[in-house]
Each structure stands twice: as structure tokens, then as C-alpha cells.
Write a structure and sequence with these properties.
Layout (H helix, E strand, L loop, with lengths): L1 H11 L5 H15 L13 E5 L2 E16 L3 E5 L4 E6 L6 E2 L4 E5 L2 H37 L4 H33 L2 E3 L4 E3 L9 E2 L5 E6 L4 E8 H13 L11 E6 L7 E8 L9 E8 L3 E2 L2 E2 L6 E18 L4 E3 L2 E11 L6 E9 L1 E6 L2 E6 L6 E5 L9 E6 L21
Parallel strand pairs: 1-24
Antiparallel strand pairs: 1-23, 2-11, 2-17, 3-10, 4-6, 4-9, 5-8, 6-7, 8-10, 11-14, 12-13, 12-17, 13-14, 15-16, 17-22, 18-19, 19-20, 19-23, 20-24, 21-22
Helix pairs in contact: 1-2, 3-4
Length: 417
């Protein structure tokens, strides 16, 4: 374009401007042949690295479950009658033996009175027949009556005795029915709302009145998959773990509003066979739920996370979870390796791509099962500026050991380094 512009200038210029035009053209040609400035090499990005943490950690499996009240009692009346009193407040804690409902007792009191009278009548009749029996025996001993007379007196006495026993049994039934008019709580727990109002007719063993949920202890069910079950049984056969059926296996319990695990429990039941539909084994954990300031933290059907610790702690390598990168589903790390630049023959630090097999997460650290050694320098800072093969300027940062359960218990050790 510079040459075309120069030709245009020549056409438009006169003889007097020829010399000036030539000077301009020469200057333009000289500018086109100027040598470009040298490219300054980019400075290697600054990154930070850490060495893997070597620590004994325990394996675990996480499950989810729902709390369950055991026992959970549905309150029903054992007699038919009119509901006359409700003696509790809906949704409150009740104690065993606390009065809850009252059925109209008057019809049952009348039956008790009638049965009492029949008992007294039977007692009097039995006394009379006892006298007649004694007289018949005396007369028979003196030969004044026949054996038949004695047998009849004895039979009458046995009938009178049976009549008294029947009357006493009916009296006990009447007493029970009268007692059933006063319905008390069979357990300590949290009571639900009443399902029926005063004045309504209650049918014996039919009408549901309310429910009471036991709260301490409370239980949670979860399902163990078949792979984990086989792994546990192999460890059990080797003697590396104890049976949950005979030893209280401790578990950590986390609630819906927390990240960690604030309470604990132990396995108190494991089913005897797997569910053929899901391929899982139902397991139940018992959780203490003490009363605090008149309240209990857990109740029926609450969501819980259950951490099931497996075996003993083993030496492992851990890296920060933030150091892991995912590439098409493959988890990998970037590590720093010492190298020599082939052009400058100078030592440098180069990024290396390192696929790894990951294990479980413990806090903000992740167990690395394979693909990493204790002396590898793992990149933890500046990951967004690096790729495999580029030189970097790396500085070390320290990673503290995690507060992890010790080798023999689930308690978190305070000896963190």
C-alpha cells in the first residue's frame, strides 16, 4: 500500500516536487524493511504446592436413614362407651401412667355392682350346701341315709363351688372393664393430637384415639448394600472386625442441619437376609436422645446421615480435595517435577499430569489410593493457570494433618500435627 500511495503522489506532483517525492518514497521503503523487536519470554506462572499428608485413616461408608420410635403405641379404648374426658394437651411429652382419656364409667360401675351381688349370693349358697354336705356325711356314718343322698349333697356342693368361681370371674371382668374406662399412657413419650372429641361414641379396639412415640432411645434404619456386606463378612472371617450382633458397633450420626456428625449410636439389629428386590440388608442403629431443658432433639421420621466405620486405621496418603481436577470423569492431580530446559540448559520446574485413584474424603482431605507417592509435590494453588508440560515457579505451603478417628475408636483424636 505504501508503494501505491507513492505512485499516486508522483502522478499528482509537478516537476518541482519530484525531488521531494523521491525522498518520501525512500523513507517509506526504509520503514517496511525495519527489523521487528525481539519477543520477551513470558514469565512462568506462580503456583503453590504441598506434599501429601501421611496419616492413619479408617475406611467408612455413608448411609441415609429415618428415625423411628420404638415402641410406638396407638391408643385405643378396650371398652365401648361415650368419651367424657380428654386429660392431656396435644403434642406434649407424657409419662408412663399419665391419664389420657376417660370413658363414661357409670354403665360399668352398675355391672360391677351386679357382679358383686352375684358373688355374695353364690357365697351364701355355697355355705348352705356345705352345711347340707356335712349333715349328709354324718347321717351316712350313722346309717340314717343312703349313699345316694350323700352323693347328691356332694354334687350340689361342687355345683355351688363352681357357681361361686364363675361369679368371681365375672366380677373380675367387670372390674377390668371399669378400669379400662380410664385410659393411661403405657409409655413415656411424645403424644400426638386426639382423633376424637368429647361426647363421641368410642368403639372397643376399633376407634383410634391418639398415638404416643417413645423418644429415648430412638432408632434409625438404613440399608447396607451387598458389596459392603460381603466385605464386612470377609473382615469378620479374618478376625479383623467384631460382629455387630454381639458387640456394640459404634456409628456417627449427622442431622439435616449440619455438615458433620454431632451424635453417636450403635447397631442393635441386623436383619437375617437381604431384600431380594433391592439387594440390601436392613440394619438398625440405636441413638440416645436425652431430655434437655424439657425437650428432646430427635423425633419420629427425621432424616439422619449415618457413617459406618469399617475395620482399623491404615497408613494412607491424603491431599486437599481442592487439588483434584476432573477431566471427562477421570480424577487427576498436577504435580511439580524438576527438569532441564533443552534450549537454555537451565534447571526449571515443570507441571506433570498425574491420574490417580481416589479413596474416601476425610474433612477437606481426600485419600489417594494409587498414582501418587509421599515425595510428590502436588499443586494446590494457581491450578487455573497451568497445564501439563509448562514451566512454573512453585513455592511450598504446608497442609496440616486432619483430626481423624484413631485406630481403635471412633473418637476424634486431639493430637493433630
Amino acid at each position: 500500500m505504501a508503494q501505491l500511495s507513492s505512485l499516486s503522489i508522483l502522478r499528482g506532483a509537478g516537476r518541482n516536487g519530484l525531488l521531494s517525492t523521491c525522498v518520501i518514497v525512500a523513507a517509506l521503503l526504509t520503514g517496511c524493511n525495519r527489523t521487528p523487536p525481539a519477543v520477551v519470554p513470558a514469565k512462568p506462572p506462580d503456583v503453590s504446592f504441598t506434599y501429601p499428608v501421611q496419616q492413619n485413616v479408617r475406611d467408612y461408608e455413608d448411609y441415609t436413614g429415618r428415625t423411628e420410635s420404638i415402641p410406638k403405641v396407638e391408643i385405643r379404648s378396650r371398652v365401648t362407651g361415650e368419651l367424657t374426658k380428654i386429660l392431656f394437651t396435644d403434642g406434649t411429652l407424657v409419662t408412663k401412667g399419665k391419664p389420657l382419656f376417660e370413658i363414661d364409667p357409670r354403665p360399668f360401675e352398675a355391672v360391677v355392682s351386679a357382679m358383686t351381688a352375684i358373688v355374695h349370693q353364690s357365697e351364701g349358697d355355697l355355705k348352705r350346701k356345705k352345711i347340707l354336705l356335712d349333715r349328709a356325711r354324718d347321717l351316712r356314718a350313722r346309717g340314717s341315709n343312703s349313699q345316694e343322698d350323700l352323693d347328691n349333697a356332694l354334687a350340689d356342693f361342687d355345683v355351688g363351688k363352681a357357681s361361686l368361681e364363675l361369679a368371681e370371674a365375672n366380677k373380675k371382668t367387670a372390674d377390668l372393664n371399669l378400669a379400662f374406662c380410664f385410659i393411661n399412657s403405657p409409655i413415656d413419650g411424645l403424644i400426638s393430637r386426639t382423633n376424637i372429641d368429647v361426647g363421641n361414641q368410642v368403639m372397643a379396639n376399633v376407634t383410634p384415639l391418639t398415638t404416643v412415640d417413645s423418644l429415648d432411645p430412638i432408632y434409625a434404619n438404613f440399608d447396607v448394600d451387598e458389596r459392603t456386606l460381603l466385605r464386612l463378612r470377609r473382615l469378620l472371617i479374618k478376625g479383623e472386625i467384631n460382629s455387630a450382633r454381639t458387640n456394640k458397633t459404634k456409628l456417627d450420626i449427622g442431622l439435616a442441619d449440619e455438615v458433620g456428625f454431632s451424635i453417636h449410636g450403635f447397631i442393635d439389629f441386623a436383619d437375617n437376609s437381604l431384600d431380594s428386590g433391592t439387594g440390601t440388608l436392613r440394619v438398625r442403629v440405636q441413638i440416645d436422645n436425652p431430655e434437655i431443658n424439657g425437650r428432646r432433639l430427635l423425633s419420629q421420621n427425621m432424616f439422619v446421615r449415618i457413617r459406618f466405620w469399617i475395620g482399623e486405621a491404615n497408613p494412607s496418603l491424603l491431599v486437599p480435595e481442592s487439588a483434584l481436577v476432573s477431566d471427562q470423569g477421570i480424577r487427576h492431580l498436577f504435580v511439580v517435577k524438576d527438569s532441564v530446559n533443552q534450549k537454555t540448559r537451565q534447571a526449571e520446574q515443570v507441571v506433570e499430569y498425574r491420574p490417580v485413584e481416589i479413596g474416601l474424603q476425610h474433612g477437606d482431605m481426600r485419600v489417594i489410593k494409587s498414582g501418587l507417592s509421599a515425595n510428590d509435590r502436588v499443586l494446590v494453588g494457581g491450578l487455573q493457570r497451568v497445564r501439563a508440560g509448562i514451566p512454573v515457579t512453585a513455592t511450598q505451603v504446608k497442609t496440616k494433618k486432619q483430626n481423624l478417628p484413631d485406630e481403635k475408636t471412633n473418637a476424634v483424636s486431639n493430637a493433630s500435627k
